């Protein structure tokens, strides 16, 4: 029998830590709109969004929000797992 990956069962014990860099500056008040990710404006005219992303659906949602604001994507990188709380089965 094939095992179903955790990301398909809804039970997530770890999230990937991502750094998303976009052209332009976002004020820190936008952090709530980006699921609490840390926003850092850089002197080179970019903003870095940094934090855990639980799955690919959440990542695509974040990228869609950036696109909706008209902010061009400069780079996207994952630095490995970020601990998150485990959800209990219902």
What does this 3D model show about the protein?
The chain is an alpha+beta fold. It has a single domain, classed as Alpha-Beta Plaits. It is 19% helix and 37% strand. It has helices spanning 6-9, 56-68, and strands at 14-23, 38-41, 46-53, 73-83. Strands 2-3-1-4 form a 4-stranded antiparallel β-sheet, covered by helices on one side. Strand 2 (38-41) and strand 3 form a beta hairpin. The chain is globular and about 30 Å long.
How many DSSP E strands? 4
> How helix-rich are the residues, as a percent range?
10-25%
The CATH superfamily is YebC, transcriptional regulation domain
CATH class descriptor: Alpha Beta
**N to C succession of SSEs:** HEEEHE
Distance between the termini: 23 Å
Hey, roughly how much beta strand do the residues contain?
A: 35-45%
- Mind describing the biggest β-sheet? 4 strands, antiparallel
Total discrete domains: 1
Q: Tell me, rounded to a whole number, the average pLDDT.
A: 81
* Parts with pLDDT < 50 across at least 5 consecutive residues: 1-13, 84-90
Query: Looking at the structure, what is the overall shape?
Result: globular
**Widest sheet: strand order?**
2-3-1-4
Work out the helix count.
2
Gross CATH architecture: 2-Layer Sandwich
